[in-house]
Amino acid sequence: MERTWHKIYGDRVPKEIDSGRYSSVAHLFQESVARYADRPAFVGQGGELSYRDVERLSRQFAAYLQAVLGIAKGDRVALMAPNIMAFPVAMFGVILSGAVQVNVNPLYSPAELAHQLLDAQVDTVIVFAGAVPTLAEAMKTAPVRQVIVLQSGDLGHAATAGAPIAVDLPQYTLFSDAVERGAMLAFDPVELTSQDLIYLQYTGGTTGISKGAALSHGNLIANILQFKAATPELFAEDRHTVLTALPLYHIFALMVNCLSFYSAGAKNLLVANPRDLDGLVATFEQHRVTFITGVNTLYANLLTHPRFQQLDFSSLRFAVGGGSAILRATSDKWQALTGMHIKEGFGMSETSPIVTLNPLHLAGFSGTVGVPLPSTDVSLRDELGNEVAPGASGELCVRGPQVMRGYWRREQDNASIFWPDGYLRTGDIAVADGDGFIKIVDRLKDMVLVSGFNVFPNEIEAAVASCPGVLESACIGVPDERTGEAVRLFVVREAGALLSEDQVREHCRARLAAYKQPKYVEFVPGLPKSAVGKTLRRLLRTRPD
Question: What is the pTM of this model?
Answer without folding.
Answer: 0.87
